[in-house]
Amino acid sequence: MKKVFSILAMSAFMLSAITACSQDKSKRPSPPAKVSEKVGATTVTIDYSQPSLKGRAIGKDVDPMDGQVWRAGANEATVFEVDKPVKVNGQNLAAGKYGLYMISAPGNEWTVIFSKTWDTWGTNYAQKDDALRVKAKAATGAPVSEKLTYKIDKSGKVSLLWGDRVVDFMVQ
Predict the structure, then answer these.
(1) Nearest 5°: phi and psi at 54?
(2) Which of 74, 60, 145, 142 is nearest to 104 (CA)?
(3) Are residues 124 and 116 in contact, defined by beta-carbon separation less than 8 angstroms?
(4) Measured between alpha carbons, how far is 143 from 89 in angstroms, rounded to an integer?
(5) Count of C-beta atoms within a 10 Å radius of residue 142
(6) Would you list the domain boundaries of the chain?
(7) First to last CA, the chain
(8) Is the pLDDT higher at 23 or at 168?
(9) Do 82 and 92 touch, CB atoms closer than 8 A?
(10) Where would I find the beta strands (DSSP E) of the chain?
(11) Band of the pLDDT at 27, cuts 50, 70, 90?
(12) In DSSP terms, which residues pair with 163 in a beta bridge?
């Protein structure tokens, strides 16, 4: 009886240890990252998972693929949050949390999408949940960003840096 109890106890311990390790998001291949900045009186925050290129080519081996909605990160949806109403590239966006998605296009104009659904796995996107879509300028940047990175400037310029791509939009 003691042997059976010991085996059950050890099994329960191993299961809880495995579960605890699998919930540690920092151990993922695309770990969590977060950037936050005060833009005037508004706090702008982007909470995302940060994939790495690892020798892969954007648009061929790794997202974004031209013309397709992309979660603008990895794992769960990238979350864009503002604590006050703002204008994004001149268009109104209410205070709150949004899923941040993008559509890349050949050339220098991308679409940035703010979805009302933010607490979801990143690929669970539905256009009916869009709160706002804006056009953003894309450029080829140097140096190459091995890890997907977001930057928010105090002026309100939000930049996505991924590989040789830089995508900017303004929050005011």
Answers:
(1) 50, 45
(2) 60
(3) no
(4) 26
(5) 7
(6) 29-170
(7) 68
(8) 168
(9) no
(10) 32-39, 42-49, 69-70, 78-82, 86-88, 91-93, 96-103, 109-115, 130-152, 157-170
(11) confident
(12) 145
Read off the tokens for 85: 């109403």
Residue in this structure with the two tokens 């220098």, named with its chain if needed: 108
Chain position carrying tokens 């590239």: 89
Pairing of strands 42-49, 78-82: antiparallel
- Confidence at residue 11, expressed as pLDDT on a 0 to 100 scale: 46
Say which amino acid occupies 60. K
Q: What is the pTM of this model?
A: 0.83
Residues 159 and 162: their CA atoms lie apart, in Å, by 10
Classified as helix, coil or strand, 11 is: helix
Contact yes or no for 111/105 (Cβ under 8 A): yes
